[in-house]
Amino acid sequence: MFNKTARPLFDERISKVLETPPGDLVDTESELSYAAGMAAYALARGDIGHEEHNLLNMRIDMARFSVLARIQRQCRIERVAPQ
Question: Which pLDDT score is estimated for 81?
Answer without folding.
Answer: 65
